[in-house]
Amino acid sequence: MSPDTDAGTPADLLESHPETAYFWGRVVGDGEATERGVSVRATDETAADRLAAIAGSDDVDHRVDEREYAHDTSITRREDSYTVRLEGPIGDRAAAALGLPIGDDPGGYRLDALAEYDRQLLRGLLEGCGTVCFKSSEGTVGVSFVHDDRAALESIQGLLDAADVDAPYGELSETSSGGYWFGLDDAAAPALGEWLYAGSDSSGLFAPSRRRKLRRSVEEAEY
User: Fold this and answer.
1) What domain count does the chain have?
2) Smallest Cα–Cα separation from 126: which of 201, 1, 26, 2?
């Protein structure tokens, strides 16, 4: 619930802080913790640089990937992919503190440890495993979360339930690729988008391409 700024600089990557909440949201959404460390992916160079700065890492790999659409794996798209890596015991520490899966341990996603900064945490989660689309036939915006791990999505639903914004959502369903997803009610998109990105300009805790797509979709929609 706290703003992005005026929180100082985190002394530790597992400290509850706007920057760390955003970082771990991105890791849960599109990254992993291992015994070797932590990695997180982004499709936006600016976001990748920001994540690397938060992690204190200069290990950023850039490549062009061909990715399947979550809801229709017969369709692919080419996009830039940046992977930020941080080596060391942080993977084990994150698994212990936040319940992230590691090795054979499925974890438990104890993200409530970062709940003080749920706005930044959910922003990272949306950018990491969320999808946004403008539904031209209905004049609305579709926002959904997609993940291979059902428990991750259940944790996101819990965060949405507790957030200071009305964000009703549908049931969890399986995707054609074997993962899971759930969608927010279309009418909730404008308020959620405004709440999620409040204060983001001053902090830089956002992916410009993702924020731009959500805002443009809301502007196009007939709310």
Assistant:
1) 1
2) 26
